[in-house]
Recover the amino acids of this structure.
């Protein structure tokens, strides 16, 4: 077991007797550079400052190299295999932080000792907090990913005879603060001429939950509240103040977002969205102001020239379009522009009411297939037929009404007594019969299914079947004799009739 005396003797021999000079590169063969091994043990990611574009990490560096003048035989020094010396006692590679945020240069890690092994291996393990530059890309904020680098370089004269041989990184004890999630880190070495550099590249992803809940969601809700502007009556006095409040809220959110992001970063999609919403809100405020102005103007008031020109332009634009009178809704603002005269006088209430009434009548009675000049009414569907001769009926026989008074669209066939629905819709039917011999039973049928029954008790008595039926195109409606009542006689001479018509199309 060695003692302090052995350590003193060892230090004296390797530093004093050998006349060790820490200013000279410790290599016996100057034609070959000293190879340096570096390992970055990351203990924490302390901060990512988006505004100042600063990346702050803490950790230690395991730096190793070979010193040809600091080896000894352990048997001569009571098996001493390693020795701790102060940093200024031996030659050290001039390693500097290449992309420091506030300064670039030596790490200034003078308070940490160096371990010297009997084989000449030197191990230096300094600890520090590293503040480096990091270009923040916030285009997809808050769903962004950032790539930040920590670069170490061999500075000044050390680069002539030294180079990095191997670089590693350890993150087993890594702790990430704040709203960021660690993804991975890569280590790479660049030995190009006089440039010898080691780069540790960190891949980080933002946790968007807090930003979405506290910033994005309220901004979207405020944007959706724009639509409520058109639900506020003009006479309430709150229409303009509501739109102004929404605009100011969006402006505040835009200012807050700007303060969170660096001034030199690319355009943020969230920021573009807020600016676009502000433009939309400004347009809504202009429309609301026009609505309130038109609402409160009197019949003898004159509109400003710019408002008059806008109304005239709107009128001319509408005239050039093909308007379907039944499918288009005319707004109050458009109706007002139709009645503004050349002097800028506000619309008269009686004229406005009559114009609205006229448009509603057009919507109810006109069915258009082209422009308004090509309007035509839908062709109605109706028929009315009568029986001309006395008819004896037996079994389930179809009663054929042979004389036609009305038969629009030819839906009723007088040769077989069948009505065939030309379109889907709700129809009205009625059949009236007079018995010529006694009791008489008839049935109204739809596709051979019973719809209703009619009954006459004695000769000369009238019976009828009346009802509304929903039909699809191609359905058949007929009048049949009840097969269970035997042979019966139906009065002709146009006393027995069958009629029907389309109520509404479905």
């Amino acid at each position: 077991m060695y003692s302090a005396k052995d350590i003193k003797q060892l230090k004296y021999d390797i530093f004093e007797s050998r006349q060790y000079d820490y200013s000279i590169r410790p290599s016996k063969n100057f034609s070959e550079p000293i190879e340096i091994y570096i390992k970055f043990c990351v203990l924490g990611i302390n901060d990512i400052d988006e505004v100042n574009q600063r990346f702050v990490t803490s950790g230690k560096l395991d730096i190793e190299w070979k010193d040809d003048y600091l080896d000894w035989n352990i048997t001569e020094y009571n098996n001493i295999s390693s020795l701790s010396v102060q940093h200024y006692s031996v030659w050290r590679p001039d390693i500097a932080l290449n992309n420091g945020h506030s300064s670039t240069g030596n790490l200034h890690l003078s308070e940490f000792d160096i371990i010297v092994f009997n084989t000449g291996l030197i191990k230096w393990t300094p600890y520090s907090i590293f503040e480096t530059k990091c270009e923040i890309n916030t285009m997809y904020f808050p769903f962004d990913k950032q790539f930040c680098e920590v670069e170490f370089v061999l500075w000044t004269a050390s680069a002539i005879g030294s180079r990095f041989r191997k670089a590693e990184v350890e993150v087993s004890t890594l702790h990430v603060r704040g709203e960021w999630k660690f993804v991975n880190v890569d280590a790479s070495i660049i030995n190009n001429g006089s440039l010898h550099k080691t780069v540790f590249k960190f891949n980080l992803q933002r946790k968007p939950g807090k930003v979405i809940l506290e910033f994005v969601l309220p901004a979207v809700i405020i944007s959706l509240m724009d639509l409520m502007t058109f639900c506020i009556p003009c006479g309430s006095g709150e229409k303009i103040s509501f739109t102004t409040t929404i605009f100011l809220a969006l402006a505040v959110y835009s200012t807050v977002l700007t303060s969170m992001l660096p001034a030199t970063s690319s355009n943020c999609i969230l920021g573009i969205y807020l600016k676009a919403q502000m433009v939309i809100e400004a347009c809504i405020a202009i429309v609301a102001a026009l609505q309130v102005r038109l609402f409160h103007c009197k019949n003898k008031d004159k509109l400003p020239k710019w408002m008059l020109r806008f109304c005239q332009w709107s009128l001319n634009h509408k005239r050039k379009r093909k308007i379907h009178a039944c499918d288009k809704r005319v707004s109050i603002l458009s109706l007002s522009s139709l009645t503004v005269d050349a002097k800028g006088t506000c619309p008269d209430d009686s004229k406005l009411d009559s114009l609205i009434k006229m448009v509603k009548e057009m919507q109810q009675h006109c069915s258009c297939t082209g422009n308004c000049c090509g309007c035509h009414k839908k062709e109605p569907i109706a028929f009315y037929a009568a029986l001309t001769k006395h008819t004896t009926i037996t079994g389930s026989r179809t009663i054929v009404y042979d004389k036609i008074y009305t038969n629009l669209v030819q839906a009723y066939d007088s040769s077989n007594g069948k009505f065939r629905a030309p379109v889907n819709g709700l129809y009205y039917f009625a059949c009236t019969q007079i018995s010529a011999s006694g009791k008489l039973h008839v049935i109204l049928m739809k596709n051979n299914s019973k719809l209703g029954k009619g009954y006459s008790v004695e000769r000369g008595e009238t019976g009828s079947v009346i009802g509304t039926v929903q039909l699809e195109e191609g359905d058949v409606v007929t009048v049949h004799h009840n097969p269970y009542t035997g042979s019966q006689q139906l009065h002709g001479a146009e006393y027995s009739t069958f009629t029907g018509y389309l109520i509404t199309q479905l």
In short: The two ends are 108 Å apart (CA to CA). Residues 382-505 form a domain with the Jelly Rolls fold (CATH 2.60.120.40).
